[in-house]
TrEMBL record:
One GO term of the biological process aspect: protein transport
InterPro entries reported in the protein's UniProt record: ExbD
Entry keyword set: Cell membrane, Membrane, Protein transport, Transmembrane, Transmembrane helix, Transport
Keyword Ribosomal protein part of the UniProt annotation: no
Protein name (record): Biopolymer transport protein ExbD/TolR
Subcellular location: Cell membrane
Length: 96
């Protein structure tokens, strides 16, 4: 997966990960669990179950840089509606 570049990097480890690959497949994982495929319609239930386990959790969204912005906004809307803290995963800028 090729993440977009970003200067702002965080060192904190996300507890929950949502991944959108270049083919628009969705995956999610909590803690040290391996990410599992899921449908977008299942994401809210998955994230709520994670929040029940860890109320202070936050979600890291890993989206391939080719993923349309509308797909990212759909995930951000789910997070916002459910008051989940979210960060967007990026890769560091390349050295020039």
């Amino acid at each position: 997966m090729l993440l977009p570049q970003g200067k702002q990097q965080t060192s904190a480890k996300p507890l929950t990960r949502v991944i959108i690959d270049k083919d628009l497949n969705f995956y999610a994982g909590f803690g040290n669990e391996k990410e599992q495929p899921l449908q977008l319609a299942e994401l809210t239930t998955f994230l709520q179950a994670c929040a029940d386990k860890e109320p202070e959790m936050y979600v890291a969204l890993y989206a391939d840089e080719s993923v349309p912005y509308r797909e990212i906004v759909r995930i951000l809307n789910i997070a916002n509606e459910n008051h989940f803290k979210m960060v967007l995963a990026t890769r560091p800028p390349e050295e020039k």
